[in-house]
Amino acid sequence: MPKDKRDVEAGLLNKGFQKAPGGDHNYFVYVAQDGKKALAKTKTSHGRGFDIDESLLARMAQQCALTRPQFLKLIECPLGRNDYEDILKKAGKL
Questions:
Q1: How large a percentage of the chain has pLDDT more than 90?
Q2: What is the pTM of this model?
Q3: What are phi and psi of 39, to 5 degrees?
Q4: 27 three-class SS
Q5: What contacts 82, CB < 8 A, 6 or more positions away?
Q6: Which of 23, 22, 24, 26 lies closest to 13, judged by CA?
Q7: Contact 40, 88 (CB under 8 A)
Q8: Using CA of residue 21, residue 59, residue 16, residue 85, what is the dihedral sign?
Q9: Which residue, 73, 80, 85, is CA-closest to 30?
Q10: CA nearest 15: which of 83, 69, 61?
Q11: Cross-strand bridge partners of residue 25
């Protein structure tokens, strides 16, 4: 099921991702609770009022070292920040 871009971006920001400078897209980089930047980053397109489809959600999940179901849990809040950092450490991304 597609997700509203605003909800995805808000979910990322709520879980420790920070907006990074970029001109052609909105870039998000994960910054751990100890201040380290992780090798987890993703992006969304500029513009308002559109949904992110399933295939793009899957690609964003992969960029964040997650499965699509895990990514949905991350942006919808059941997957906490500590749990996400554990996943990143196991994947060698933090």
A1: 84
A2: 0.90
A3: -85, 45
A4: strand
A5: 33
A6: 26
A7: yes
A8: negative
A9: 85
A10: 83
A11: 45
Q: Which of 31, 32, 28, 40 is nearest to 93 (CA)?
A: 40
Neighbours of 8 (CB within 10 A): 24
Top-tier CATH class for 3-90: alpha beta
- Token couple for 85: 């950092």
User: What is the Cα–Cα distance from 86 to 7, expressed in whole angstroms?
Assistant: 24
Amino acid at residue number 57: L
Q: What is the DSSP string of 35-90?
A: SPEEEEEEEEES-SS-EEPHHHHHHHHHHTT--HHHHHHHHHSSS-HHHHHHHHHH
Strand partners, 47: none
pLDDT digits (tens, 9 = 90+) for 33-58: 999 999 999 999 877 668 999 999 99
How far apart, in whole angstroms, are the C-alpha atoms of residue 90 and residue 72?
19
CA–CA separation, 44 and 25 (whole Å): 6
